[in-house]
Amino acid sequence: MEDADALEALSNILERLTENPYDIALHAEHLRIAYASGSDEQIDSALDMTTAFWAVGDEVWLPLINRKLQSANLESADDLLGVLSVFETAEQDYLSIPVLQKHLEFLVDRFEYFASADKRPEELGELFSAEWTRTMIGVVVSQGIGHLSKSHELFDIQRDWELEQLESVPDDEKAPLVERIESMLLERLTQPHSNHEETLQVYSTFTTNHKPADQYESLLVKASKLKAQAVKSYQRHEPLEHSLAMANYSLEGYAYYLATERRKKPDMFVLKTLYERAITEADKRRFFGELGSEEALRSFWTGYLDFLRIQDADEGVLTVTYKRALKSVPTSGEVWARYIRFLESSNPKDVASETSAAYQKAMAVGPLVADVEQLIPVILAREGFEKRRFQSGNTGEDGFTAILDIFTDGISRVRKASSAGDPRLRLEKFYSAICLDLADQAEHALIMWEDTAKHYKSSYLAWTAYADVLIKQHMLDDARKLFRDICMKNLDWPEAMWEAWINFEQLYGSVEDIEDAMDRIERANAHVHARRLKEAEKAGYEAIQLAAEQQAASVPVVQAPVPIQTQALKEQASMDVDAVQQGETSTKRKAEEEILPDKSKKARIEQGPLKLKRDRENCTVFVADLPSGAKEADLAALFKDCGEIREIRMTQLPDALVATVEFQERDSVPAALTKDKKRIHGEEVAVHLAWKSTLYVTNFPQNADDTFIRDLFGKYGTIFDVRWPSKKFKATRRFCYVQYTSPAAAEAALELHGRELETGMPLGVLISNPERKQERTDSSANDREVYVAGLSKFATKADLENLFKTYGAVKEVRMALDNNGRPKGFAFVEFEREDDARAALSANNHEMKKRRIAVTLADTHVRSKTRDPKAEVRNRSVRIRKLPPGTQEGLLHQALKKIAAVKRVEVFADKNEADVELESAAEAGKLLLHSEPIVFNGNTLEVLAEGITGPSTTRSIAPPVGGGMFVPRSAASRPRAGLGSKKRVATISAAASGTSASSATASAEQAHEPAKTQAKGQDDFRKMLLHGGK
Question: Based on the domain organization, do 369 and 278 belong to the same domain?
Answer without folding.
Answer: no
